[in-house]
Amino acid sequence: MSGTSAPVRVEPRTRARTGTRVRKPWTTGQIVLTLLGAAVSVVILSPLAWALFTSLKSETEAVEVPPHWLPRDWTGQAWKAIFETGNITNWFVNSLVVSVCVTTVVLVVGALAGYGFARTEFRGKGALMGVVMGGLMISPAVLGVPLFTTVQQMGMVDTYWGMILPQCAPAAMVYILYKFFQGVPRELEEAAFIDGAGRWRVFLTIVLPLSRPSLAAVGIFTFISSWNNFLWPYMVTNNPDLMTMPNGIATVMNSYGIQWAQLMAGGLMAGLPLIVVFVFFQRQIVAGVAHTGLAGQ
Amino acid sequence: MTTSAGTVVALRARAAAPSTTVRRRQGFQHGGWFVAPFLVLFALFVIWPLLRGLWLSFTDANISGEGARFVGLDNYREALGDQLMWDALGHSAYFTLLVVPCITVLAFLLAMLAHHIERGKWLWRLCFFMPFLLPSTVAGNLWQWLFNPGTGMVNHVLGIETPWLSDTSYALLAVVVCTLWWTVGFSFLLYLAALQGIPAHLYEAAELDGANAWHRMVHITLPMLRNITGLVIALQVLASLQVFDQAVVMMDFGPGPEGSTRTFVQFTLEEGFTSYRVGYASAISIIFFVLIAAVALARMWLLRNREEDGR
User: Fold this and answer.
1) Where is the ABC transmembrane type-1 domain positioned along the sequence (chain B) (predicted)?
2) ipTM computed for the complex
3) Which end of chain B is more exposed for a tag (fewer CB within 10 A), N or C?
């Protein structure tokens, strides 16, 4: 099984789509399992519910002892406050700019490189491939300080560039696309070459359209990790106007006497976009995460 | 730091031998241009920092980067004798030892559950996976709030008065709980995908042979999941060793009670950005890199041995 990226089956398509599914009768086993699933879901989701309810309390009610789940006085104060006084809209825009840029660059650069490694020949390819694979073990967590001084040397501390570019060289994504392109039948390309198409044309009109699912997987994965990235933006900027959501919430909102209702509202704001996106694109995202993970298998 | 896709791939990187069969075939040359943009970024932000870190680790550089002197192996010598470094390494290792088995078992159980419930699959998947969609810092803040001794829900629900975040014996445990809740969804999805990839005919055949549910699980499901379990464990080990975000957020950006949650990454950043000892911090980073690389290589070596044994 090793070396091949197993096809990721999310669920049998036909059941969800055709509408003519056969309702299986409830067996005892199914009832027990479903109840168990519901109980587990309640446990997993209760922290989120707690965050939501806290955000709808007043600051004084939020810190009452003993705590209670539901607000006595439902209020949108905290939500109003974070939009009126804080930089949260700024951070939201920054997060969006950074994530979109990173995802775009990674897709373009990664697809080109993956294809280059999979399907073209050039001197030193094997050696380069080895170096890139070695780079897989390097992350900002491992080499944060030298990476920072490098970016500092380039004069990119406290800039969008400094936040974006270091996130744009993920060897992992190149490797995933490389594996995918290897699986594209060569005959398709060779036929086009014989018809006189150039390398670029083949890449753009034949290979890329075939690889949409893989590109989607890589794009989604990159977007999630970039949106949620804390460590690198934390290192590279302490300018509140440049911070991203996770970063701003963690540093600025935590700094002068935590206002819990506001902090929870801010946290939900940071998580909400991905949750909404997940609800709508669940199939693609699940396939994406599973695919990027399993590609390493 | 959660599971980075980088590590996913490092584990199987050895399959990357270039095919030379079509060398010189028309249209298959001059591929350098395809690879060039990536290589530029890779060289600037991966290779160069690594080389630079290696160089800095032999100097007494400060954050400004000026007036650095070559000091040979002094930084490494100091690091190996630095109790703080060993403590930080110990915390990260202990954290890893706690998180990895728990997450592997939990993810497997959740996947089995979601796989076997016939109705509303999308709903279970959504519920189990949702925490992973939050930024690490938000997860950290949320659990800091939940573990708050007076106003938090954990003590209230359990009816206890444990000072989770301010007691040396509980603080790291609290970070572990937060991490489990936040990241189990990722491994859960990997397991779920793997479960769905097991051919149904295996189960059918076993059923014909009269195997009961337990036998089917022990003789089909578990062996078929062996690869994915190896992957999940390896990914979690590498990610857990690099833990940072949720721990610092839960401890208000401090090292926790008596430094008991100071992780390796945090220690490196403190030396680099708080004490401004970039040379020393680089040496520690290099040590960390070697450690991470050793783990990844060990995994590759294990895989290869297993394959040679014909599994």
Assistant:
1) 89-299
2) 0.86
3) C
